[in-house]
Amino acid sequence: QVQLVESGGGSVQAGGSLRLSCAASGFTASRVYMGWFRLAPGKEREGVAAIYAGGGFTSYADSVKGRFTISLDTAKNTVYLQMNSLNPEDTAIYYCAAKSGSWSGRPMPLSSRAYNYWGQGTQVTVSS
User: Fold this and answer.
1) How far is it, in rounded angstroms, from Cα 96 to Cα 88?
2) How far is CA 126 from the centre of its chain?
3) If you ran DSSP here, which 8-state letter would residue 49 be given?
4) What sections of the chain are H helices per DSSP?
5) pLDDT digit string (tens) for 84-109?
6) Of 4, 8, 56, 63, which has the maximum CB count within 10 A?
7) Cα(105)–Cα(116) distance, integer angstroms
8) Judging by DSSP bridges, how do beta strands 92-99 and 78-83 pair with one another?
9) pLDDT at position 102
10) Cα distance between residue 93 and residue 9, in whole Å
11) Number of H helices, E strands in the chain
12) Of all residues in the chain, what percent are helix, strand and coil, respectively (each to 5)?
């Protein structure tokens, strides 16, 4: 049974940091693509970061590049999103996702359509 459980959301001031966790069960996270997505009020769902640990691959949206870091702890089967230098534009519900199976066509790791399993989401609020 595939499950993804996010935690670590909360409220921080601009310039602060927060680390989100995604505990995976029912599969080996390092063998698939894992991603973080966010949904902000009035905006489309945005792919924030993705990781394929088995291939040593990571990808980031331009809006978070240099500030956010995605990582995976194989022992805990958990994916993390370290968020630094937060600003109010980062306020959103953050979702963890996993992709099962193979890619049909070119891989698009920051596309939400590619992912099969989703967590419940965790709220991140950044105040100015």
Assistant:
1) 20
2) 17
3) E
4) none
5) 999 999 999 999 999 988 888 899 99
6) 4
7) 16
8) unpaired
9) 87
10) 9
11) 0, 11
12) 10, 50, 40
